[in-house]
């Protein structure tokens, strides 16, 4: 028979309330996964493992990652979070295994997974994930409840938090502008390769195309490379066009898409 407890739960509820508490902690600490991923990207851990052939012990990783020597033991904890979240895999050599080293920490071999393979080489999504984990993107999440209490119309939550829009901030802050443009470009490299290969028919029969809000032109360049007969141009805000690469065969036009859009056979609009 269940007995009432002071907190209102019954003894028979104990297991489910412990499960619920565990889930509550899981939700509370969910950000640890994001922050561990950010640390891994900042430190270049995927590249370090890739350098060692796709699998590496802690001491091998440390040869390619700039850590203060006093912090090396803590890397194991970070790797534990990253393996639990599927960013890396871990294989442990059993103590009896001939290949197992005496040092227990060295018995773990960390390997790339399909997730961390997206952080290396061509089609690398690291820039996009670094953009999304940039403090300027993270901070607005702290203000969700406050933003919800304000009457519409009002600024988006980014402007509500920072006092200016994402694009205004990128215009004012050259380093943040690079973070945003590189993030968008990494998405374009990945998705345009698939789009051009799998659905290239949408670009046939057109002679000119303008990529509106096309960032630094990565998507337009992919189209121009695959379909040289299509004259490609990119329209974006002046601070983005100012940083656009030259010699790509793609014309850049600075402007505001809400005022006018340059004429072309087709208008291309891609959001990540
Ligand atoms: C989400 S990004 C997408 C970039 C690119 N199309 C892609 O998919 O990688 C949005 C782009 O819109 C641009 N943008 C924002 N407001 C704009 C405006 N009023 N006129 C033209 N471009 C604008 C930004 O500078 C940014 O490059």
TrEMBL record:
O-methyltransferase dimerisation domain ranges (all copies): 29-120
InterPro entries referenced in this protein's UniProt entry, alphabetically: COMT-like, COMT_C, COMT_dimerisation, SAM-dependent_MTases_sf, WH-like_DNA-bd_sf, WH_DNA-bd_sf
Biological process terms in GO annotation: methylation
Superkingdom in the source lineage: Eukaryota
Keywords carried by this UniProt record: Methyltransferase, S-adenosyl-L-methionine, Transferase
A UniProt-annotated Pfam family: Methyltransf_2
GO MF annotations, alphabetized: O-methyltransferase activity; protein dimerization activity
The O-methyltransferase C-terminal domain, residue ranges: 144-270
UniProt key word tRNA-binding: no
Protein name: O-methyltransferase ZRP4
